[in-house]
Design a protein that fits this description.
There is one protein chain. The chain is of the alpha/beta class. It folds into 3 domains: 72 residues, LysM domain (Membrane-bound Lytic Murein Transglycosylase D, Chain A); 121 residues, Periplasmic binding protein-like II (D-Maltodextrin-Binding Protein, domain 2, 3-Layer(aba) Sandwich); 103 residues, 3-Layer(aba) Sandwich (D-Maltodextrin-Binding Protein, domain 2), CATH 3.40.190. 31% of the residues lie in helices and 18% in strands. Strands 5, 6, 7, 8, 9, 10, 11, 12, 13 and 14 form a 10-stranded mixed sheet that branches. It has a two-stranded antiparallel sheet with strand order 1-4. Strand 5, helix 6 and strand 6 form a beta-alpha-beta unit. Helix 2 packs across helix 3, helix 6 packs across helix 11 and helix 6 runs antiparallel to helix 12. The N terminus is likely disordered.
Length: 357
């Protein structure tokens, strides 16, 4: 009887280690009346986090977050220790332990024999040496390359001049691969510079591009037709291919007006003045800018993404090992997805990102 009592308390053979570890995240089964915002409100205590459920289940849900089905099983990330009580959860201690910021050792000639990857700072939350693991995408690439384990080794180099990455550093194979880069709509316009000159890996991460609108002058976004005739804002130098792809041709055929001021902050200032109908940015950049400007109570996020964009590793088509290198990074990415390391990276970075938003 004593032994039975001790086992019941988790104090039998194996001692206190028999106690079940606290877990978070896991598999949620969609119930009647559910929406992603209702699930987020109930399980994350924050309805705004519907987007992270969508992003985490893009292959199941698709482009439209409203199209979830009763009985569908969704993977919920462990963020800030929530949600709890779901099957298939992750040990909270593991899921919330962030990597250390990147410290880059001085280079030496030995790097010449390695596979050399290229990135840069100032692209939060994806790449920046001040962030845990160097940022979400940097850590994914690091772990994928470790899993691929090339016999010659590899090194990641940080060169803080993004304009030099494609030309001349990658075009001349001064470094082998670069990240993280968006892939234009190469099927519709194969003449674009990146399409003509680079191969793209499988996406290291897929981000949601959102429409940020004014609560004082809201606009609907139930279909692409709702945007026709509207004025959008995206800073100068940012990509615009998503505004034309999949038959939209919003810019190409003048169906919308695009304003391109110098900065993200300028876009939100124009939104507050009523000079544009919406700001079109990736979710994290937009939410961070709203918080910095102190306008969280004046801006809302449209309830479906404008587009979903992958962040890729790229290699120049003229590189003599181009296909081999792509196969290598893709192999490593699949390995860390299969062993759970990829999800751990996403969960820990999302915990930090949402705590800052």
């Amino acid at each position: 009887m004593v032994v039975a009592a001790l086992v019941a308390l988790g104090m039998g053979p194996g001692g206190a280690g028999m106690a079940r570890a606290e877990t978070c995240g896991g598999i949620y089964t969609v119930k009647p009346g559910d929406s992603l915002s209702r699930i987020a409100d109930r399980l994350y205590k924050n309805a705004k986090m519907w987007s992270t459920i969508h992003q985490n289940n893009l292959q199941k849900i698709g482009d439209n977050p409203s199209l979830i089905r009763v009985g569908q099983k969704l993977r919920l990330a462990c963020i800030n220790g929530l949600p709890t009580g779901l099957p298939g959860g992750t040990d909270v201690a593991v899921a919330t332990t962030a990597s250390a910021p990147v410290v880059v050792a001085p280079g030496n000639a030995a790097s010449a024999t390695k596979i050399n990857l290229l990135t840069a700072d100032d692209y939060k939350p994806f790449t920046d040496r001040s962030l845990p693991g160097g940022g979400l995408v940097a850590e994914v690439v690091q772990k994928a390359m470790e899993a691929a384990d090339p016999p010659e080794g590899f090194a990641i180099h940080w060169v803080n001049d993004w304009s030099a990455h494609l030309e001349p550093l990658l075009s001349n194979a001064l470094l082998d691969m670069g990240f993280p880069w968006l892939q234009p709509d190469c099927a519709a316009d194969p003449s674009q510079y990146r399409c003509e000159n680079f191969y793209f890996s499988e996406p290291m991460f897929e981000m949601l591009i959102m429409l940020f609108t004014s609560k004082e002058h809201p606009i609907a976004f139930d279909s692409d037709d709702d945007i026709l005739g509207k004025t959008l804002c995206r800073p100068k130098g940012y990509y615009t291919h998503d505004l034309d792809k999949n038959g939209r041709n919003w810019i190409r055929e003048g169906k919308i007006t695009l304003k391109s001021p110098v900065s993200v902050a300028d876009c939100f200032e124009m939104l507050m003045k009523g000079e544009v109908d919406a700001v079109a940015l990736n979710e994290f950049t937009g939410r961070a800018a709203i918080k910095e400007a102190g306008i969280e109570d004046r801006v809302e996020v449209a309830p479906r993404p404008l587009s979903i964009e992958g962040l890729h590793v790229i290699v120049h088509k003229s590189h003599p090992r181009a296909q081999e290198l792509l196969a290598l990074i893709n192999k490593g990415l699949r390995a860390i997805k299969d062993n759970g390391e990829y999800q751990r990276i996403i969960d820990t970075h999302m915990t930090r990102i949402w705590s800052e938003l």
